[in-house]
Design brief:
It contains three helices and two strands; from the N terminus they run ββααα. The protein is an alpha+beta fold. A two-stranded antiparallel ribbon has the order 1-2. Strand 1 and strand 2 form a beta hairpin. It is elongated and about 55 Å long.
Length: 101
């Protein structure tokens, strides 16, 4: 079993926010490009690498104040799971796959 990393609010300085899955795992999501990463990428070095390579780091005008404002705006915007649209289990489809298998 892999180690489950915990979210730290200092990761905002890399331009990330936290999304929590149904099973309780926390996954980082980039607030600049909305890319969702796995829990294994919750290392500061991986987040910093994405921030520098994809978004130019601090040189591109992404200082901590603007990133906090962007995170607040990003967290206010509703996503489909927050509105109650979750993928549903389809037992008939699963049963047909099992029969075919």
């Amino acid at each position: 079993m892999s180690k489950k990393r915990k979210w730290n609010d200092e990761y905002v300085k890399f331009g990330f926010t936290c999304t929590t899955e149904k099973d309780g795992t926390q996954r980082p999501q980039c607030i600049l490009c909305s890319t969702l990463f796995s829990n294994a990428n919750l290392k500061p070095s991986k987040l910093d690498e994405h921030f520098k390579n994809k978004h130019g780091g601090r040189d591109a005008g992404n200082d901590i104040v603007t990133l906090r404002v962007k995170r607040a705006r990003f967290d206010q915007v509703g996503t489909l799971p927050t509105y109650g649209f979750l993928p549903t289990e389809k037992p008939l489809l699963r049963a047909s796959y099992e029969v075919a298998y």
